[in-house]
Amino acid sequence: MGVGADNKTESTSSKFTLQQLEEKEEVELGNAEAMRPAKDDHQSAEPRETWGRRLEFVLASVGYAVGLGNVWRFPYLCYRSGGGAFLIPYLIMLFLCGIPLLFMEFTVGQYTRLGPVHSLAKICPLFKGVGLATVVISYVLCTYYNVLMTWALYYLLHSFSPSLPWQSCNNTWNAVGNCSTGFPGNATHLKSASQQFFDHKVLEMTTGIEHAGGIRWELFGLLVLAWAIVYFCIFKGVKSTGKVVYFTATFPYFILFALLVNNVQLPGARDGILFFLMPNWSKLLEVQVWVNAAAQIFNSIGISFGSMISMASYNKFNNNILRDTYIVSLANSATSIVAGFVIFSAIGYMAHIHNLPVDDIATDGKFVFLFSVISVSAAVILFDLLYVYMYTVQFAMVEVAVTFIMDGFGKKVLQVFKRKELIVLAVCSVGFLLGIPHITRGGIYVFQLMDHYTAVVSLMFLAFFEVLAITLIFGVRRLSIMLENMLGKKPNLFFRVCWQFLSPMLVLGILISSIVQYTPARYGKSYTYPLWAEVVGWFISLVSIIWIPLGALHELWTTEGSLLQRLKKSITPTIDLESVSEKPSGESIALFAAA
């Protein structure tokens, strides 16, 4: 239970030491609660839950970080960015942004024991809207992320047929005249069989967003099932989620390694793996490759989504988050690289059987990229892998919304709903309703529009303002004191330099590059959205971003004094950093070192 729970020995002195540590931890947890103002209407009537064991937090965090992006988006970006050339900026961004910023979010969540909204409001009242923005973007993402899970379930059910239906052009949904069972390459009049299965069978897609075309009732039923599974896995809070992640965070690795062993033995696999590992050095001169690498780190680890802050807020006060940071971030990247070997060995095999160069294989869009190579693997097993990965991500994103409600309005909401389980049901029900437009026949256009303006435009704005609020305004010195209070040791020079200089500059550079290289949303190679849809897309983006200036204006308006005095008060944290631990004990330092 917590850090140090596994350090028990049979000696009397060790038992006495453990008892002292537990007593000290209880005192520190009590002091941590004392950080909050005496009159705090934002807290729920119930005491805050904690993870049953430290391992549950690690598994939940790894499960959230490791998801569909590792086995789908990462290989796709590698393929489009020069193979091994993408790994260089990816690893640089991991160590200069990913690890330091994950450590920062874990620190904020564990120290304040609050979700992103209220923790950031205490750290920098002027940017309290950043926390609310992270909740909004997480919830918006989870409403259409479950649509991906619906598609995966649809593919899973069709994987039990004797032959995979997306391999053949001899089906009722195929347009035989322009269907290719191989890879169409640069022939614009041809579509692969896997693309036609997705367009004409799964989606029954219309010609544009202006033609909704009615609901796909098969997908509607699967969306209900997808949300029901999410609800029953998280309705008891971290206590139930903590038990589920023992399976969802570990089972996929058995499947992934089984696929790796199978695929590397296929003819032509070597060519695909060499494409993955050997860099095309000219690609490193393209700014977009570096932007894609940074975006992959932020999307995959989950920085600025609020989920990591929420999950860390359920930790015990002295939990060793530095060790957890390394485990989560390195496990995430290692999984991406292993998935790269799995996918690229399959691509090499497909190139071999079709007698094509490796770089001419995956010509379809990213939604069908993975499906093109599934035929060489055990399809049922692979979709099981995708489904479990997606659920662990979905748990965390829904938990962000639930944490916000319980932290901000817990007492009032419980008076209406009586039980937390009903609050979770309401959150899942609203998410289901918001997902219905995505499973109409024109829903893919809605999905692509939201994905473009939420996952690309909004995320980097939120990341910049979160880093600005925590590392530059709240300050590295205060962040170091928080860590010293919890772990008995300040962060090393590497983290302090990253927080103070490197991470903010890189995030700002990525934000500027994203703005300069902005292009309107498109679907496929030819469909461009009408003007009204672009306006809707920007509105979707503003749904999360708008809370940042609104929160700042609200703070300045409600604070007394002159404008200068209001600004000064608005950037002053309300956390008493000295109330938790005036001086770290020797036991805390020993605990940190032993971990």
UniProtKB/TrEMBL annotation:
Residues 36-47 have a biased composition (Basic and acidic residues). PROSITE patterns: NA_NEUROTRAN_SYMP_1, NA_NEUROTRAN_SYMP_2, NA_NEUROTRAN_SYMP_3. InterPro entries: Na/ntran_symport, SNS_sf. The keyword Isomerase does not apply. GO terms for molecular function: amino acid:sodium symporter activity; metal ion binding. It is found in: Membrane. PANTHER family: SODIUM/CHLORIDE DEPENDENT TRANSPORTER, TRANSPORTER. Belongs to the sodium:neurotransmitter symporter (SNF) (TC 2.A.22) family. This is Transporter. The lineage of its organism: Eukaryota, Metazoa, Chordata, Craniata, Vertebrata.
